[in-house]
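Hi Prof. W.,

I finally got the Alpha/beta hydrolase-fold protein prediction working! I wasn't sure whether to trim anything, so I left the full sequence exactly as given:
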Amino acid sequence: MRAQMRIFGAAAIGLACLLPMAGIAAGGSARAEAPVQAQAQATAPSANAAPSAHAAPSANAAPSANALPTVRPRRSEIVSLKSDQGLDYRIFISAPEGEPPEGGFPVIYVLDANAWFGLAAEITRLYELEGGPAIVVGIGYPVDSLYAPKRRGHDFTLGAPVRGETSVYAGTDFGGADTFIDFLTNDLRAAIGGRYRIDRERQSLFGHSLGGYFVFHVLLTRPDAFHAYTAASPAIWWDPAKLAADERAAAARVPAGDRPPLLVTVGSAEQKLGRADENLFRRMHAQNPAAFGGKSIEQVIADTREQMAKSGFVDNARDMADRMKKLGYPTEFLLLEEDNHRSSVPAALMRSMPLFLDAGR
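And this is what came out:
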């Protein structure tokens, strides 16, 4: 593996959501790098310190008839990993402390980690009561914003979009999805497996929006890459013909075994431009108007409203779920009432947990 991994920093924390989701390492903004071989040390509590709300109970504590299963403290860290193609990734990791379960820790891989890692890590911690401990690995980019359009436009796609408001993707080298799959399943998985004892039969993938489009491509072309998948608010509109070609190829193949399960989610308000969405575009335009190709903010909003009405987010997600069922994939479709493109993500992550962490699968 030629990919090189370097540590930005590490901290033992009880709440993974304390990691800022904009890409600042836990424990401060300093990012002194050290080789990956260096062991990140968790901070040991003082002998006189008050017990943490998330600390494991004392071995001498009196048992309680109503005690819930213990939820472990978690260690979160951010590392840098370079692909064989020379692309830099910021990898966010949240792992339970203590010994792994028999077979190793399940691993949940989350795309667009600059935006969604903190939320995914905290939801995974909460769900430990039902599903047991799991590692969350977020794949992000070395930027200080929530998203990196040019990078995700390269990693998640099979080519340029066929329509839509794409000025924020100007100059993107589209079509790197297959190379990105190789990075996930080879370089990244080997790096995580070298740091933790993981269950290689329980590796799941979560992608939102264009990441959801990518999830379908992985599932249709390399279904064995992960054991379970969630496509949240998938941007089918990007290029539905290419996904249709993936479907035809998948239908012609004889499956090597049981097809992995899939959850498809979408908010019922995703085909209209709400106030929160409009505010987002106004802030983006105010910060960098050149990114919108010279359009005024009113023109950007008008164009986006029209494109969202035509996007078919809800209709396409429901239709795609039906088509995946016909191909033999165990598929659940979930419509999240009144949620928009971003507010639907917390529910999508929570509803993914049983799928990802079902130990009996």
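Residues 8-59 have pLDDT under 50 and may be disordered. Does that look reasonable to you?

Thanks,
D.
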